[in-house]
Known about the structure:
This is DNA-binding GntR family transcriptional regulator. Helix 1 (about 10-25) crosses helix 3 (about 45-55) and helix 2 crosses helix 3 (about 45-55). It is elongated and about 65 Å long. A hairpin with a 7-residue loop joins strand 2 and strand 3. The chain has about 250 residues and is an alpha+beta fold. Helices cover about 25% and strands about 30% of the residues. The protein folds into two domains: about 1-75, Winged helix-like DNA-binding domain superfamily/Winged helix DNA-binding domain (Arc Repressor Mutant, subunit A); about 85-230, 3-Layer(aba) Sandwich (Chorismate lyase). The N and C termini lie far apart (about 50 Å). Strands 1-4-5-6-9-8-7 form a seven-stranded antiparallel β-sheet. The chain has a two-stranded antiparallel ribbon with strand order 2-3.
Amino acid sequence: MVVSTLSEEERVLSGVLRYVREAADADASLPGELKLSEWLDCTRLQVRVALGQLQREGIVKRRQGAPTTVDPIALKLSSRFEQRMEYGEILSRMGYTASLEILSTEIVDLPSDVEPLLSPLAQQKAIRIMLRWFADDRPAMVAEYILALPEGASLDPHQITPTDSVFVSAHKLWGEAVAWEVVTAGVSTLDQSWAELLDLPVNSASKTWEVVGVTLSGERVFHSYEHHHPNLVMYSFVRTIRAPWGGPLH
């Protein structure tokens, strides 16, 4: 198990975000600086700095002599669907302590349903990584990553580090950066194996993401399928309104 390492500043910010999330869920104001500093074992100045950052991002609203309140829309935008962040960073921004478990790493035949989605320059073998992210010791997301191997690449699964970002691993294998992800979001019911990994009842609903990573030259180098806990992290995205509803954009 790998626990995300945070600086002291990040630890305090993540802790404040935890109470921000709880206040938003309860439709309540945020506790005062003194109480937060006691709960987080830090100084009031550290809490004030964290709240100042969240105020600049629009997540909290502060007025002299009034309770600090949470803007629920701005809080939702802290985990935006169209902005790519590492999942551990998303969990930290929601106030969770993030940790990662690597379930398996192995060389496999390129699955027949995945092969058409990946680069024609890939071998018929791939590196398969199964991993699970935790939020405060609760399973939050389970993913299967299929990393395509370019022609001539070694069939050694140890040529990558499983705890690395998939972008780092793909860059190591293909020699160029991943520039885009094609993401298809959906909902699925969990069979027994996925349900056990997410610690949910069989046939529970989960949010799913199917992702294909594309390099700068257009090679499609990895495929992932992710099951997300339905309640721990909520995602939002921003849509631009164009004519005829919103008028022309200048």
